[in-house]
Amino acid sequence: MALRIRFQYESGLSLGYSIERLADGLFYDFSTSSFASTPATLVASLPEGVGAFQGSYRTALTSTPPAQFSNGDFGVTIHNMAASNLVVGELAVAMYNGDDATVFPSSSGIDPWMATVPGTYPAGSAGAILGGNLDVPVSSRSTFAGGVVAGVTAPVTVGVNADKNGYSLAAGGLDSIAVETGVNARQALSPILAASAGVLLGAGTGSITIKGGNVTTTRVTATTDDSGNRLAVTLNLPS
Fold it and tell me: To the nearest whole percent, how much of the chain has pLDDT over 70?
């Protein structure tokens, strides 16, 4: 267990460091190895590296018992010891079980996926909601047999419904399709059939009637001029 410090700065200086426990604002006393509000020894030396590591100031405080370095955040302040401990830098450190861990495990120290739910999770928490509602295998609720969804347990039977055999389009299915204002698709087909296959009476008289296809009901009544142009048309559409 250790608190490791790395700080890059101008080479050849006399740097030191102090440690603050942010949870309570106490500072580490290097003379007693404990935290206090007014430590006797606030700043310890931060040695500079040599050779390729000149300008890199580094140390490791290896006496970091969890009782003193409790789990949480700490602040490391870098001081210029040759200039009345002038502050030249600040570092943030997270400690866990006396070590400068960067990743915290679960609060219980075990794999969270091993936790029993709802267990002791309080009402309204994710653990209580998950354990209280997802209490059966998903596969037992993933099929539908026509009942209330919450009570569905029987599997879907593969047959007519599954392969879509036996379906037909009801006449009412065309009624919701508007072709013109007040005329739906089913009604529009009636005068079309009449015009192409119905009995036509009064040609050349200026007043024409057209029966429906295969029925005797008049579907179209038209007034025309001598050239056959339609001047007025009345439709008798099926309801």
Answer: 85
